[in-house]
Amino acid sequence: MMTLEKLQELKEKSRLVLEERLKEEDNTEVKDGNFILKGDYYRKQTRIALRNCEIIRPESIDEYIALDGYTSLGRILTEMKPEDVINTMVESNLRGRGGAGFPAGRKWAEAFKYDSDKKYVICNADEGDPGAFMDRSILEGDPHSVLEGMAIAGYAIGADQGFIYVRAEYPLAVKRLKQAIEQAKEYGLLGNNILGTGFNFDIELRLGAGAFVCGEGTALMESIEGKRGMPRTKIYRTAQKGLWQKPTVINNVETLANVPVIFQRGTEWFRGIGTEKSPGTKVFALVGKVKNAGLVEVPMGMPLREIVFDIGGGVADDKAIKAVQTGGPSGGCIPADLLDTPVDFESLAKIGSIMGSGGMVVMDETDCMVDIARFFLDFTVEESCGKCVPCREGTKRMLELLEKITSGEGTEEDIARMESLADTISSASLCGLGQTAANPVTSTLHYFREEYEAHVNEKKCPAGACQALLEFYITDKCIGCTKCARNCPTSCIDGKLKERHVIDTDRCIKCGNCASVCPVGAVIKR
Amino acid sequence: MIRFIMNGKTIEAEEGMSILEAARENGVNIPTLCHDKELTPFGGCRLCVVEVEGSKNLVASCSAKVREGMVVNTESEKVVKTRRDILDLLYSNHPQDCLTCEKSGECGLQDLCYRYGVKEGSFKGEVKNYAIDSLNPVMERDQSKCILCGKCVRVCSEIQVTSTIDFTGRGFNSKVTTGFDNPIDYKNCRMCGQCITACPTGALINKQLKGVRPWEVTKVRTTCPFCGTGCNFDLNVKDGKVVGVTPNPESPVNGKSLCVKGRYHIDFINSPDRITKPLIKKDGEFVESSWDEAINLVVENLKNTRDQFGGDAIAGLSSARCTNEDNFVFQKMMRVAIGTNNVDHCART
């Protein structure tokens, strides 16, 4: 049976092996006694949740143990009372990384309070925002950190059963988790009588079936219970009546991955990173029109500009940055002139966006903000569960209004209707999905209203992205090479050899072939 | 007791009560479409939203408990605007055919649109359009009129415990239907019609009541003649004819619940097959006779049998369709006049 001493021995032994391997592979360096990945991209980050990713081999529990894995759990089980664990968590002020930012310690304290024959810990790994892959990377790269975090949560609140609700679309994460759970059980770090302390904690996987709304806590529990994934009424808090009506704690993958480190290095260390109200780091999936797309983990409060330009390397093709979208379909677009906003829960909320689970999409001057709002609404309409009217019917109507505007049929009145409807959807919807569904519209209306107005009044898309509102035009730069005419699928370009060509806009289907084949850039969108 | 302020007045409510329940007890009419006090709260229609001071969003009063000192406004400008929007959204995705709808006059959606002045569905866009399912004998199911309040789903699973129907699809495309979208009477459904009673709109219609406007009928409360349970309901009488049955929530035994027989049995009342005169078999043929002749024949035969073979040679079977008084008199007759305990009744067990 695994004991604390044996764990320590194993750690020392494995550490030597790991060091050897890392030295050989030579893609890491040591900073303050910790391994970090080499390169500027990583050097500018502060990796806590991603601390082990790409450093240890995720299939190896020994390598996780080598980097202090399961020592927090061991120490907690042997030295700390559940109350102390909760106090530490409250003191750390670790806030939920899934989006809402609710302090994890307070969730635990609440669930601890209720007496029950059974309690549950759930790891929410139903990451669904378009373009987000923070949780996936942790599950695939460092599954044990999540398991350890869950076991600590279980000990703290008095639960002996955990569930990981993970998307079936993450087959590698599922495989790694299964393997990690098996290994941990084999080592006596999960299951019955963990480390000989009498504490039991088991973890099972539940696979999602592709519904975005199942990332919402109560819909997630309905789904685990085998029912249709629809959010519950909010009569009780999950901490009081959650899974099968028992006290339950639901934490996000990234939140749980932070937990063991907090116990290793102390709350003071943790609170020293980030801002006062949002301590620690946050992982972002930096994507879109940025040079170095990828996962970045930075201290909270880092200005957006630093993330996009210093780490991300700025906008691709050196175009002008227009906005950064944070928070996925529940978030908002932050205009370029607010790029110095520190990225933390409060600051982002103040400017009409949210932290969300960590999606960060960089947009340049060719991105139409109305079209961006339409894209996210399209996603929400698709993913609404259909339970409550404002979300089911309201988002659909809002999408129809946006489609009307982007196709050049919109009016000023449509903009006003959308604003009014956004208010109803936000304030009357049942769950977070509906309550935040209108954010992409309200934030773009707030910062880019003139783009909406250009669409409805001048029937123009300033960014040149809305197909219905643009036309292709051949300027006098044309050398009459006939390439465009030969590549036009509708034969709507006329012109003699070595003479300027003309597009018949009535027949043009705006496929853009002409512009891409023109050797002199004479075809423009206008 | 919890004390709090609703619409400027201090009211008291029991702990654990919802804001909606407290409001209704105090005569404040908060509208709902998905709420039913006999079913678990659903929180889907969002019409019961109210403003609670200190809450960022509006609060669904059906699923929020009263709290000491809370300040609630059930009809503020914001609340009314939101309800109007919700009704507009519902009606925009609903056939605009109230003039010919069977449910007109007792439709929850129509009533609330009237209350909040929603004249038309003002959002012009996609409207759901499903085929009507009416191949079964008892109900017409028009999904296009369904507002997805989920009452039928809950009554089917929580009261009838059959779970024949549930939500399928997602978002705008979600609908309430049976497994694999089969016709309603394909397998599990017991045709009890509980869902018809629960439905606030014209999505589920009792076929017997088609063509009958709700205001044309007189309701006569009676007891079901079918079994010994003694359910009450209202016979709907139009032009002196019973045209259908609707449950009466005041019924002490069954409340709003009815079974397939209770709800749909009335077709025998005016059936041409019904026997209204006594028939006596003469030379192998049933022949109409007078009541006197028939009763005399029965008396004579009973007497003869009793005198010749004794009272125990006769057995009496009574019916649950008779009243208690009839059944009492019948068993008395068997025991005293015939002299036997051979008397039984189909609903005895």
Number of strands of chain B: 16
Strand order of the largest sheet of chain A: 5-6-4-3-7
Order of helices and strands of chain B: EEHEEEHHEHEEHEEEEHEEHEHE
Q: Any idea of the CATH topology of the domain at 2-75 in chain B?
A: Ubiquitin-like (UB roll)
> Kindly state the mean pLDDT of chain A as a whole number?
95
Calculate Rg of chain B over CA atoms.
27 Å
CATH class label of the domain at 2-75 in chain B? Alpha Beta
Side by side, the strands of the main sheet of chain B go 2-1-5-3-4
Structural class of chain A: alpha/beta
By DSSP (H or I, 4+ residues per run), the number of helices of chain B equals 8
Number of domains of chain A: 4
- For the termini of chain A, the CA-CA separation is 73 Å
**The level-1 CATH class of the largest domain in chain A:** Alpha Beta
Q: Distance between termini of chain B?
A: 45 Å
Q: How does the overall form of chain A come out from the CA principal axes?
A: globular
- DSSP strand content of chain B: 15-25%
At CATH level 3, the topology of the largest domain in chain A is: Rossmann fold
Protein topology:
The complex is a heterodimer of chains A (526) and B (349).
Chain A: H1 4-25, E1 28-31, E2 34-37, H2 40-43, H3 61-66, H4 71-79, H5 82-92, H6 104-113, E3 120-125, H7 134-141, H8 143-157, E4 161-167, H9 171-186, E5 191-194, E6 199-208, H10 217-224, E7 248-252, H11 253-265, H12 267-271, E8 281-288, E9 294-299, H13 304-311, E10 321-326, E11 332-335, H14 345-350, E12 359-364, H15 369-383, H16 389-406, H17 412-428, H18 432-437, H19 439-447, H20 449-458, E13 472-474, H21 483-487, E14 493-494, E15 502-503, H22 513-517, E16 523-525
Parallel strand pairs in A: 3-4, 3-7, 4-6, 8-12
Antiparallel strand pairs in A: 1-2, 5-6, 8-9, 10-11, 10-12, 13-16, 14-15
Helix pairs in contact in A: 4-8, 4-11, 5-6, 5-8, 7-8, 7-9, 8-11, 15-16, 15-19, 16-17, 17-19, 19-20
Chain B: E1 2-6, E2 9-13, H1 19-25, E3 49-52, E4 59-60, E5 71-73, H2 77-92, H3 108-115, E6 139-141, H4 151-159, E7 165-168, E8 175-178, H5 194-198, E9 204-206, E10 218-223, E11 232-238, E12 241-247, H6 260-264, E13 279-282, E14 285-288, H7 291-309, E15 316-318, H8 324-338, E16 343-345
Parallel strand pairs in B: 1-5, 15-16
Antiparallel strand pairs in B: 1-2, 3-4, 3-5, 6-9, 7-8, 10-11, 11-12, 13-14
Protein name (chain A): 4Fe-4S dicluster domain-containing protein
Pfam families (chain A): Complex1_51K, Fer4_21, NADH_4Fe-4S
GO molecular function (chain A): 4 iron, 4 sulfur cluster binding; FMN binding; metal ion binding; NADH dehydrogenase (ubiquinone) activity
